[in-house]
Design goal:
Blueprint (H helix, E strand, L loop, with lengths): L5 E4 L6 H9 L1 H4 L11 H10 L2 E2 L2 E8 L2 E14 L2 E10 L8 H16 L4 E7 L3 H9 L3 E12 L2 E11 L8
Parallel strand pairs: 5-6
Antiparallel strand pairs: 1-3, 2-3, 3-4, 4-5, 6-8, 7-8
Protein name: GNAT family N-acetyltransferase
EC number: 2.3.-.-
Enzyme class: transferase
Length: 175
């Protein structure tokens, strides 16, 4: 599998079983993504409601050819009364981690969001202990901005987060 062949695409019904793994398999969600058991049926309900797209955000499958690798998502974060940015996230299956696919997928999502929305900023937050994701974000063109103390709760403890961003002017869009 080549990193250059990684692509993003909309979710189809056949993908819902793969997405459901992130709700019921701790190994699929990974150390930093596992937040406890959750309703696997939520994936199907959300897909039936809007195909994972609305004005507040979205979700795309990360693929390499026919192989499903995981997903990327984005959600609207209000930054002022009349402006917002996108906050992105990623979840890759264990067999896809550590191979550069996440970096490529996040870069593709940034390019997509800047090409199809008017935002000037895309941000991401990861746990301070998630060094692999921090490296992936930096390789994808994000800049580390700082530490968010006591930002998220996982596995019985409050965790610090690290916030990253990339601005529209920092990205050369294709075409």
């Amino acid at each position: 599998m080549s990193v250059d062949q990684v692509a993003l695409r909309p979710i189809v019904e056949e993908d819902l079983e793969t997405l459901g793994r992130f709700s019921v398999e701790p190994e699929a969600a990974g150390l930093f993504g596992w937040l406890g058991w959750s309703d696997p049926g939520r994936w199907r309900r959300k897909w039936a409601k809007n195909g994972f797209f609305d004005a507040e955000g979205g979700l795309l499958l990360v693929v390499n050819g026919a192989e499903r690798l995981g997903f990327v998502s984005w959600r609207r974060i209000l930054t002022a009364q009349t402006s917002h940015c996108w906050n992105l996230g990623i979840a890759l299956l264990p067999e896809a981690r550590g191979r550069g696919f996440g970096t490529r997928a996040q870069r593709l999502l940034v390019e997509y969001l800047f090409a199809h929305t008017q935002v000037v900023r895309v941000e991401a937050v990861t746990e301070d202990a998630n060094l692999a994701e921090q490296r992936a974000l930096e390789k994808a063109g994000f800049t580390r901005e700082g530490v968010l103390r006591g930002y998220s709760f996982r596995n019985g403890h409050w965790r610090d987060g690290v916030i990253y961003s990339v601005l529209r002017e920092e990205v050369d869009l294709p075409g």
